[in-house]
Write a structure and sequence with these properties.
Layout lengths: L1 H11 L4 E5 L5 E5 L5 E6 L2 H9 L1 H10 L3 E5 L2 H9 L9 H12 L1 H4 L4 H12 L3 H5 L20 H16 L7 E4 L5 H8 L6 E5 L2 H13 L6 E5 L9 E7 L10 H11 E14 L8 H6 L9 H10 L3 E8 L2 H15 L1 H7 L2 H20 L2 E9 L10 H23 L16
Parallel strand pairs: 1-3, 5-6, 5-8, 6-7, 8-9
Antiparallel strand pairs: 1-2, 3-4, 9-11, 10-11
Helix pairs in contact: 1-2, 2-3, 3-17, 4-17, 9-18, 12-14, 15-17
Amino acid sequence: MEKLLTAFLSRLVTRGSLTVETASGRTLMLGDGTGKEVRVRFEDPGAEWAAVINPSLRLGELFMDGRFTVERGTIYDFLELVLRGTDSLPRPFAVRVMDRMRMMTRGRISWNNPWRSRRNVAHHYDLDHRLYRLFLDEDFQYSCAYFEHPEQNLEDAQTAKKRLITAKLCVEPGHSVLDIGSGWGGLGLYLKQIGRAGDVLGVTLSTEQLTAARDRARQRGLEDSVRFALQDYRDVEGQFDRIVSVGMFEHVGPSFYNTYYSKCRELLKPDGVMVMHTIGHLDGPWYPNPWLDKYIFPGGQLPALSEIIPAVEQAGLVVTDVECLRLHYADTLAEWRRRFMARRQEALALYDERFCRMWEFYLASCEAAFRYQNVAVFQVQCARRQDTVPRTRDYIFERMHDLRMQEAELKAAADAAAGPTVETLPLRKQRH
C-alpha cells in the first residue's frame, strides 16, 4: 500500500516540501525541497488506502475523523501542494472512469425540486448563526467579496460587491426589486438604503436567515418596504423592475436551469434588468465535489457558462453583460478561514471537534480550488430587451461612484446621530 501511496502523492507533489509519515512509521519525502515543510501523518493503513482510491471524498472524511493529521503547517498548506499542479497532469484511466460515472449521476444528485431544495438549504444555512458570526463580515455577506485592491479589508470588499451588483442592476428610485436567495438580508437593505430602490422582496428557504433578515429590517425601520419571505423562487408572483440573485444559482441544479430563467422572465417587467452572481466552472460542466455534496452543500451544483447562457436564451431573455471575478473568492475564503481559526474555540463551544475539522477543511479546500483549479464567479446581467441598459460599461463605474457618495452620506448621518446602537443578529437557542 505504501508503494501505491508514494506513487500517488509523488505524481501530485512535484514542488515544495511534503513529508508524509505512513501508518507503519515510514517517512516519505516528496517535492523539490523548496519552501516551508508540510508534514502529515496517516494513522492507519485503511486511511492510506482510502486517500488513494477516492481522495475527493475520503481525504476530507479522514481529516474530520483524525485519521489523517497535519503535524506541520495547515490542511490548506497540504491542499495547496497537492492541487496547484494538477490541472496540467493527465488523469489516470481509473480516475477517468470514476469521473464518467459521477457525471452520469449529476442530474440525480441535484434534482432540486421544492421539497429537496428546502431540505438542502436547512442543512447548511440553518446552522446556529453564531457560527457565521465568527468569520463573516459585519453585514453577514456569505458570498464572494469584490477586492478593489490587495490591501482592502473584508468589510470594505463586501461593500464593494454590493455596490458593483447594485450598479449593474441600474436601480432607480422607486424600482421594485426581487432578491432570490436573500440570505441575512444585507443586499436587500443596501438596495433600499443606498440604491434608493422602492419596495424590496427577499425570498429564502432558510428559517434562520429569514428571522434574522426580518429583525434587521425592523431595527432600521424598513419592515414595510424591505420584506422577506420563506418562499421558493418558483412560487413568487407579480412583476419586478429588477431581479438579483447572489450565491443561490448553485442550488438550482442543471435540470432546473430552464425553469429558473423562465420564471425570472415571467417575473421581470418588459424594461427590467436582472443580475445573477454565481460560482461556476471555467472549463465546462462538471459533477459536484463528493465531499462538499455530502457534508456542506447537499444538492449543490456549480454551473458552467455553457449551461447558463442557453438557459437565458431559451427563456427569451437577452444577455447584456458577463463578468468573471477570478481569484476574488480565494481571497474571501482566505479571510474567512483566518477568522474562523482565530475563533475556533468558540466554534468548538457550539459544536464539536469533528465539526470544527469539517469546517476547516471546507474553507481550506474551497480556497485552494478557487486559487488553483478552474473555479470562479460569474456575474451575468440580462434583460428582456437589449436596449434596456446603456451601450457601454461606463455606466457601471459612474453608478458605483454615486453609490459611494450615498454610502458616505448615510455614514455621516449615522455618526451624527446620538448614541448609535450596534446592530446584532438575535440570539437563538442552539439545536442539537
